[in-house]
Amino acid sequence: MDIYIEPIADQDLKPLFSDPEQLGFGQFFTDRMFTMQYNQAKSWHDAKIEKYKALSLDPAACVLHYSQEIFEGLKVYLSADNRVLMFRPEQNARRLNRSAARICMPTIPEEDFLQAIKKLVMLEKRWIPKAPGTTLYVRPIMLGVEPRIGIHPSSEYLFCVLLSPVGPYFKTGFNPVSIYVEDTMGRAIAGGVGDVKTGGNYAASLWAGRKAQEKGFSQVLWLDAKEHRYVEEVGAMNIFFGYRDKLVTPVLTGSILPGITRDSVLKMAEDLGYKAEESLLSIDEVLQGIVSGEITEVFGVGTAALVVPIGSFYYKNQNYMVNNNQVGAVTKTIYNRLMNIQYGKVADQYGWVHQLGFID
Ligand SMILES: Cc1ncc(COP(=O)(O)O)c(C=O)c1O
To answer: Which atom of ligand 1 is nearest to the CA of 257?
Structure first.
């Protein structure tokens, strides 16, 4: 793929933030973005890296009416010796293509997805934050942009990649969070699109998320949308339960997003000496396990926050405290191991880390 790089004059570059504490999550964007167009005659074409700017969309564009939109989220990590690293980006390329296929969008060759991101990141490398726990977040999106009303798959698409320097996802740091178990609303239905990364799933989650936060909880635990019985995900993270002798995560039933962090934890677990299982877990058995002490720790996993210890669940007017609201030993081990691999602090025995280059 040939990528045209639009020149930007030095005086048009944005000033870098001076205080990494102010970064927050997803509030600042770099100078440039990658864009590429699709139509049926030319397939993907016009790949370019241009100045970050507002998009121009026809008000009749499909995405604005029928939500034909998908996205991804991955991070760039800077190692102590200034290597620019990414974690399993080919998995994001594959998941983007699974999402695309599910909602009738064109796929993107994996090598083009990786080339676009690598080129953009290295052009924008001055934006990679250096403070501990900070990263450059990469957000690819694909939109159906054909200007025609009437429910149909768009014949034209825009693929775009944005970069955002970010601090920790949770301001509370690596401390246990309290979870509201949602027992009436559902995030995603069986046979629907919960297992792909399309915006509508997140719109569907907003009401319950806001309600939980207003009640003082950090996130929602989603149960299956039919029976409100089986545990699915926590906020926008997959969930793991630590039993005395094993780690268990809900099996992918079709309404759960197959997280790349989830997959990594399952693969690492055995090497860290833990048995790991995927199974159907009902909320009743989970809460009983917490009360009996059989479940000793619980944590959420995802790219944005990596590993989030869970300190309590609130379900039908009752609070269930996990591990005395303390971070568990397995949670800590998994968090440290993953973070050390991502930041290039330890040898990567899995071949997960891609080195894009160096910063000077
Ligand atoms: C709904 C949902 N579940 C789980 C995850 C975790 O996935 P990953 O580990 O690939 O970031 C995400 C984040 O992408 C998500 O949006």
So the answer is: 3
